[in-house]
Amino acid sequence: xxxxxxxxxxxxxxxxxxxxxxxxxxxxxxxxxxxxxxxxxxxxxxxxxxxxxxxxxxxxxxxxxxxxxxxxxxxxxxxxxxxxxxxxxxxxxxxxxxxxxxxxxxxxxxxxxxxxxxxxxxxxxxxxxxxxxxxxxxxxxxxxxxxxxxxxxxxxxxxxxxxxxxxxxxxxxxxxxxxxxxxxxxxxxxxxxxxxxxxxxxxxxxxxxxxxxxxxxxxxxxxxxxxxxxxxxxxxxxxxxxxxxxxxxxxxxxxxxxxxxxxxxxxxxxxxxxxxxxxxxxxxxxxxxxxxxxxxxxxx
Length: 300
Prior knowledge:
Number of strands: 8
Distance between the termini: 102 Å
Helix content: 40-55%
Radius of gyration: 27 Å
Order of helices and strands: EEEEHHHHHHEEHHEEH
């Protein structure tokens, strides 16, 4: 991605330079018989980055890659279903006209991160619990990876030319539907990408610097993401249902932010952890051999 600098001419004289971010001419590439959707490519890169970072952290903590792969497979499947389901439910009146297949048209965009994180986390936790590993520990292992995946995944919106913000004349405005300052909008995908990448570094630093009660880092991940997402929702102009003058996702993000911060403060600083009670060791039964009855009168 390059920032385009174009001279602004008035009466034949160059008076200033107008900068902007050009949009891609197409989000689809054809490689022989194959059709490559860049939105899907960005999702695959995001998943790969999350698996890599999570695996490195989990193995460093004594885990194994096999569990990471199993959680990734089932978590991704559940996450895509949940993300699409959230979008379908909250945007039914905007997308149902696209045909009978519209609930499955993931390649056209339309994945709600809230449903993806919820479904992916629940299924992933179930897989970890069945394996006998600590669900809380794994949640903290995956938290920075999820934020990294969300950062990379936002570039899919750039290729689809969607989910941009209000009109702006800032030098990093995103060109949509034409060139020039009249067609530049806030590149919210870029804002979120930068915010999330910074957040990955912050989470990794906090995890190394402080002693956390698991899964406190996961709560910080949710708080970090939603802190900016709440503001971002005030910039976006894509179709959305509203409640009390704000977009639905504004209220969802704000609720998640308040809940995650409250949970972190309570879990990390207020809650008194219960002392671990030692489990009683099972008594080892000593096998009994054959006994011999002795008459009572003969015992001296």
